[in-house]
Amino acid sequence: MVISFDLLIDLTPNLTLAVAKGAKHVLDHILNLWKTKTLSDVTFRCKGKDIKAHVMIVASCSPVLAAMFANDFKEKSEKVVEVKDVTHNTFSRLLRFMYVGDASLETVQEEEITELLVAADKYRVDTLKEDCGLHLSQNLKVENAACFLVLAHLHNSSVLHEMTLDFMSKNAKAVCSRKDWMDIIKKYPELCFQATQFMFEYKMVLCTIVSKIKILNSSLLTEGKIYPTLPINFATSFVLLLSVRYQLFPNSFHTFKRVFFCVRYLISTVCLYRMASAQKLRENLLSISWGAVNCVAANGQVLITDFPDVFESCQLSYNINGQQIVLELNFVLSKTSKPTKLETISILAAKDGVKQKMNLSQTKWTTSWVAPARRNNCQYCGLYPTASFDILIDLNPDLDFTMTKGAKHVLDHILNLWKTNTLSDVTFRCKGKEIKAHVMIVASCSPVLAAMFDNDFKEKHEKVVNIKDITPETFSRLLRFMYVGDASLETVAEDDLSELLTAADKYGVETLKEDCALHMSRNLKIDNAARFLVLAHLHNSSVLHETTLEFMSKNAKAVCSRKDWMDVIKNYPELCFQAMQLMVGL
Predict the structure, then answer these.
(1) Mean pLDDT across the stretch 510-523?
(2) 112, 193, 94: which is closest to 153 by C-alpha?
(3) How high is the mean pLDDT of the chain?
(4) pLDDT for position 215
(5) What pLDDT is attached to residue 349?
């Protein structure tokens, strides 16, 4: 039987990254600016149609546009940019990518993707150019290979260039018989020369390897180190695949023969081999890969020892019970790890692409799938079924989410604006210290600041805002959260955290207020419970309010014997009444 387990956090690792959930709210605010055009300050005129945008966003994503607005061009003063060589739809898609990091290429026609790649190259939006190159390379055909090769050459797309050359080398006869190949010979002779070299090299290597395999096949029966029951064609095909795909070309017959027998040895032992590896992708996000192959038993288990700071013990196991394939995960959290309720941990599993959630029972997570009526047999022994599993483990699912890589680049550009203060247009004066920021960003995240800059307040004209009741450190942390969606709360002292929650409530930054409340609720103690209850009450934090009441009900005697509880009784009698009811079980 062949069972293969892959425990992954990111089921599409080439497309997504895991980041703090607050970052998603930042992206939502940026997307809302694109949709509503609120505070837009530049117009792109594209073949008779106007597209409104924000200088700060487009300049942070495009060095070409940044130079245009930074230097003394007429576009800087008039705030109107004429776009003559790109269609309205394509330029609109380009601008939208600068806001959200996603161009929805799966819905775009091939010709439009080609034009979008050209526009991305012109305005140096390299992430979009790479995405277009990858998408086009996945749709290579004999009919478009020559066109894509020229496109990649003219716009320096290494991904598309390499993939197109690889495709053309495998389809040389069909490609070279087309008229567009003759056009390449005439217009781009150096490109034609490079492609031809690649084609001939591929063919020569293929012929050399095939001839060596023929010689090897004649001597296989006399080679004592070969596992005799394995099919010759599989090993030879595997070596051929490695040699051609990764260009591992042996310099001599002896070297090639040695590589061949190494592969055969690995294949002969794979049915007896077990392997487990693990890595921490980031805080609270773990990836475990397990390949378990056993042709004589329908079950297996393995211990994971890579995370002593997270797990005191961790064991994976599987078994095949009739028509059920069952996967189990059992672990004990380390005493040195942050306190985490098992019920809050999220574990997702996928078998052959079918995803479902693993269920917790005491300390063990399990899930199962119905085995298909017709199952694939082991390609080595031909007897037992095969299965492939992907598992997602998130120790803190409420705080993180995944986003496209393009969106991550948008966040990186926004963070760079915060660090460099490029194009900043407002100054916050806070107890003698000045903090520069961007009206568009802070107004999109804070309805209080949005109202200040939208209406006829003096701050709108002077672009200076005086902050009197918050320390510079806390207000700077508040502003930074508006740019990146992360306040690094684990590094903030308890008193500063209380002030940050108060500031987030005052300026309507609900995501940050919720994050502060969650962090504080995990650090409840006898000596801060009464203060946290009052704080939650004054600033309408339902999360902190509920968790504090629950903590106080479990520690009623200790809490009620403290002086600060008497202060709650005097100053907030209705809050005291509510807490007392919960304590006595009413």
Answers:
(1) 92
(2) 193
(3) 79
(4) 54
(5) 77
358 or 500: which carries more pLDDT confidence? 500
Q: Do domains 20-201 and 402-583 have the same CATH topology?
A: yes
For position 483, what pLDDT does the model report?
A: 93
> Count of CB atoms within 10 A of residue 301's CB?
14
In this structure, are residues 75 and 88 in contact, taking their beta carbons and an 8 Å threshold?
no
Residue ranges of the alpha helices (H) in 220-291?
A: 232-246, 253-269
Tokens of 143: 């009919």
pTM for this one?
A: 0.65
Q: Which residues contact 496 (CB under 8 A, 6 or more apart)?
A: 473, 474
Give Cβ neighbours of residue 585 (< 8 Å, ≥ 6 apart): none
Task: Enumerate residues 6+ apart whose C-beta is below 8 A from 163.
Answer: 137, 140
Q: How far is CA 124 from CA 61, 155, 159, 332, in A?
A: 8, 10, 16, 49
Distance CA 550, CA 565 (A): 16
Domains of the chain, by residue range, sit at 20-201, 206-269, 272-401, 402-583
Nearest to 403 by CA among 484, 482, 290, 487: 484
Tokens 């096949």 sit on residue: 217
**pLDDT tens for residues 472-498?**
999 999 999 999 888 888 888 999 999
For residue 475, give both structure tokens. 């207000």
CATH number of 20-201: 3.30.710.10
The predicted pLDDT at position 99 comes to: 94
Nearest to 290 by CA among 276, 274, 278, 304: 276
In this predicted structure, the answer to whether residue 504 has a pLDDT above a threshold of 50 is yes
Q: Which two tokens stand for residue 64?
A: 């070409």
User: Got the DSSP string for 325-351?
Assistant: EEEEEEEEE-TTSPP--GGG-EEEEEE
Give residue for tokens 């590094």.
491
Instruction: State the architecture of 402-583 in CATH terms.
Output: 2-Layer Sandwich (3.30)
Does the pLDDT of residue 235 top 50, yes or no? no
